[in-house]
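User: Study the chain.
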Amino acid sequence: MGVSAATVLVRAKGFGALPEMIEEQAGERVLADIFAREHLPLALRETPGLPMPLRAMTGLFARGAAALESRTFGLDVGERMTCRGYGLWVEHAVGAATFGEALRRTVSTSWAHQSGARLELVRDGDHRVLRFATPAFDVSRTQHCDHLLPPMLSLARLFLGAAWRPDWMEAEYPRDPGASQVEDRLQADLHCGRPGTGIAVKETELSRRRSSEAMETARVVTLRDVLADVILADAPEPARALSAIVALRLLDGRSDIEGAACLIGLSVQGLQRRLRQKGFTYREIVEEARRARAIRLLIETPMSILAISLSLGYETHASFTRAFVRWEGCTPSEYRRGREAGRLS
């Protein structure tokens, strides 16, 4: 797998209710096994804002469908999602005055949710297609493609009405017998083997204004808010992608380079070489990820210092304290007390 495909990232919130649906229908053990097979911590379901590899996201959908023996698993997950579940970048789009402006905002700020894939608005005759295109992965994309369609429809319907249907939909996968089930459920033709997953809207529909329901529920989200919500926005590649993956694995207290290399789709030597080319070491990235997570846990949780130490992969309270003093110039306890005093003052 090429590094360009391996480091495509999306936020974990993109899997929606997938964990709950697998657990409800197959049990916690099956859910844990599916996450483990994709080298993902199960705790990721509690931190949906974290970036994760899109290839692993696609794998979760494929494995979930296989475990439940369900061709419509991806569609079932998607129908429990709305466009607003994707975060501030979509809220910013929903606040647009017209449907066309909403689509342009969605496309132009999609980097806040993902990197390496492509959300685009392309002309097709007298239509525009809102399309999400991804690099090729060594895993079936059928279920992941299907789950994207209902949230796309929910965005359009905020402007075009609850009964609106696209003139057609698109999917990256070759047509299979299950495609007709998607068409029946969503009441629109599905064109398979396309460059991405998407929905087609008429040019004349782009000038439609928000429905009264959308206006009543819209949050005022500015582009500044979207920028502030981006994780690791300033880090160069491949450090940005690897930083996200290290932060992801720290949810289980793991920081070994072997596991990170496996998740990103490279050998250990290949990963180290790519980092050296950009002037980074793996240890530096782990240190920064640990520092950021330690500060978050000290501020946002009542976890003990020892519990935080162990959760970050340190063997002892003392080794964590030494590292924290090196980062911040004070002990973890002193840092927490100082933040609490600041809030009370």
User: Anything to note?
Assistant: The two ends are 53 Å apart (CA to CA). Confidence is low (pLDDT under 50) at residues 1-5, 220-232.
